[in-house]
Design a protein that fits this description.
The chain has helices at about 1-20, 45-50, 85-90, 135, 150-205, 210-230, 230-270, 275-285, 305-330, 335-340, 415-425, 525-530; strands spanning about 35-40, 45, 55, 60, 70, 120-125, 130, 145-150, 390-395, 400-410, 440, 445-450, 480-485, 500-505, 515-520, 545-550. By secondary structure, it is α+β, with helices and mostly antiparallel strands.
């Protein structure tokens, strides 16, 4: 009975030892750098691995389940230590797992061949059994590999070592591939977040309601002027104005109608689009033929595939970029607004559908081109340049040129912040951002600058007489790539006043207000700058705005 208990305990020991090893580096836990830290998913790894291999900004990713654990600014040290495992590691050598029994007597194995009564001095590698010299000469073993038992033992040990080394190498490769797959999935996640940001910006910055409001105001003024017209000349002038407004509305209506036709095609298609299918679909729209290509069909709502829908939407955006690139190559010029964004395709035809009965103005559309010369800008850059000016910032790191960041400012919804930011960027107010340092960098989160007085977050002021002002209530969301004013660290913080400091956001920050623009070029540069900060957000390099101004 005692022997059975001891055998069972002996089989359990390796499982206890496995608990005392880090699941990532396979090193034994201790009370210092190898202390076991518990993640939110209840898996645990050593502190060193969390610092180096599992850390991604202010988050840790478990290599078992890929769930993330937020660690904030305190780092992996703030996670709870898995005390039971640490206690087991420290006291395992003193633990008595069973009753020690006397060594088992050696099993007596017959050393002679039962057939020839000769010593079993040889080993048949093919049969994996001991044989005597007489057995080795029989026809049963004539083609087998026969060696002495010592040679066979050495050969088996060598093969086992090779197999173990191969398995260890394969395990390392599997781990490398798993990390590579994790990086790929993180890139997919980042791309989805970027796409989400573009769509949210489209919803937030959609100018249709502004156009409708302006048009209603114009029509109201025309009605008022009509009621006040006294002579033929006044009526004739009004007639000309109404015709111009009528043609503009007709163009807008045709544009939106045909855009919605293609939107329906993208949403309901049962096949993945390529450039050829998109070209065919657009041709059908232009010619008034059935919208769906020959190998596609409309899907009922309950059968629509969201992944297919998203793929076709992205393909249409790529097609738009492709057509824009071709147009720019033909024209030989590059519009800065269009260059930094992917404008949606304009699907107006030279001969619009017959049911659009209002006559379109002549010579509006280009022949043999699916895109208009003056394309609508992308959701983030669709307003006139005077309403959304562009400002550039040339960045230096330790005296070396790093690159340029371009920010578009929403003067239409943030007039006060836009004016303050613009004059500080150009230096027209006698002070500004030129020579200003980036004084806070949070990896993957944000960077902060604009304190041209102290470069530490406690200085800077606005162009206005009171030095500080309440920011515009823009209702713009603080998502990746947006730019917002930051309050200075002074006694009037609780009033929400801002001066000159601003933050470029790299991940969504709920509750952050004062958004007035977004980055249209150089967001990857901002990402790189954010990695220069230490755990407290202080830059480890001298990051400087060498030059800035308006484009």
């Amino acid at each position: 009975m005692i022997r059975v208990i001891f055998a069972e305990m002996e089989s359990v020991v390796p499982e206890f030892e496995e608990l005392m090893l880090c699941g990532y580096c396979k090193q034994k836990f201790n009370e210092t750098d190898q202390s076991p830290k518990l993640l939110s998913c209840k898996h645990y790894f050593c502190l060193q691995c969390m610092r180096t291999s599992l850390n991604k900004g202010q988050e840790l990713y478990c290599v078992y389940c890929w769930k993330r654990t937020e660690i904030g600014e305190l780092g992996p040290e703030s996670l709870p230590t898995y005390a039971p495992v640490l206690c087991l590691t420290k006291n395992f050598s003193q633990m008595k797992l069973g009753v020690k029994v006397p060594d088992k007597p050696a099993k007596v194995i017959s050393e002679n061949c039962h057939t020839h009564a000769m010593p079993l001095a040889l080993w048949c590698h093919t049969c994996c059994s001991p044989v005597c010299r007489a057995c080795a000469t029989t026809t049963d073993h004539s083609t087998h590999q026969i060696k002495s038992q010592n040679e066979a033992k050495d050969q088996l040990i060598a093969e086992l070592q090779i197999d173990l080394a191969s398995m260890n190498k394969m395990l390392s490769e599997i781990q490398r591939l798993a990390m590579q797959q994790r990086e790929f999935l993180l890139k997919i996640l980042e791309a989805c977040v970027t796409l989400k940001t573009h769509v949210e910006a489209d919803l937030t910055n959609n100018a249709s309601h502004f156009e409708l409001t302006e048009t209603r105001d114009t029509l109201a003024k025309l009605r008022l002027n009509l009621s006040m017209a006294e002579n033929l000349s006044d009526v004739h002038n009004l007639y000309s104005s109404v015709n111009v407004e009528k043609q503009r509305l007709q163009l807008r209506y045709q544009e939106m109608y045909l855009q919605c036709q293609l939107d329906d095609l993208i949403r309901n298609s049962s096949v993945i689009f390529d450039f050829q299918l998109l070209k065919q679909a657009l041709s059908n729209i232009h010619n008034g033929d059935p919208v769906y290509p020959s190998n596609s069909r409309a899907l009922p709502t309950n059968q629509q595939n969201p992944i297919l829908f998203l793929a076709n939407y992205c393909m249409s955006q790529l097609y738009s970029r492709h057509m824009l690139s071709k147009q720019q190559n033909v024209n030989g010029t590059l519009d800065y607004h269009n260059h930094n964004s992917v404008p949606p395709i304009n699907y107006l035809s030279h001969n619009p559908p017959q049911h659009l009965v209002m006559p379109a103005p002549k010579n509006i559309y280009q022949e043999n081109n699916l895109m208009m010369q003056n394309m609508i800008h992308s959701p983030q850059i669709r307003n006139p340049a005077n309403m959304c000016p562009l400002y550039y910032f040339n960045i230096e790191v330790n005296g070396a040129q790093l690159g340029r960041i371009v920010i578009e400012v929403r003067a239409d919804v943030a007039p006060k912040m836009a004016k303050n930011f613009g004059l500080l960027t150009t230096g027209e107010a006698g002070m500004g951002y030129k020579g200003c340092q980036i004084f806070q960098c949070w990896e993957g989160e944000s960077v902060i600058t604009g304190d041209f007085e102290h470069n530490n977050g406690r200085g800077g002021r606005s162009i206005f007489e009171d030095s500080y002002f309440l920011p515009d209530d823009t209702k713009l969301m603080a998502v990746r790539g947006t730019v917002g004013m930051r309050r200075t660290q002074k006694r009037h913080d609780n009033l929400g006043m801002v001066g000159s400091q601003f933050r470029i956001i790299l991940q969504e920050m709920r509750g952050f207000t004062g958004i007035f623009g977004h980055v249209v070029e150089g967001l990857e540069l901002v990402e790189k700058i954010s990695t220069y900060g230490d755990t407290a957000g202080k830059p480890t390099k001298n990051i400087l705005i060498a030059k800035c101004g308006k484009l």
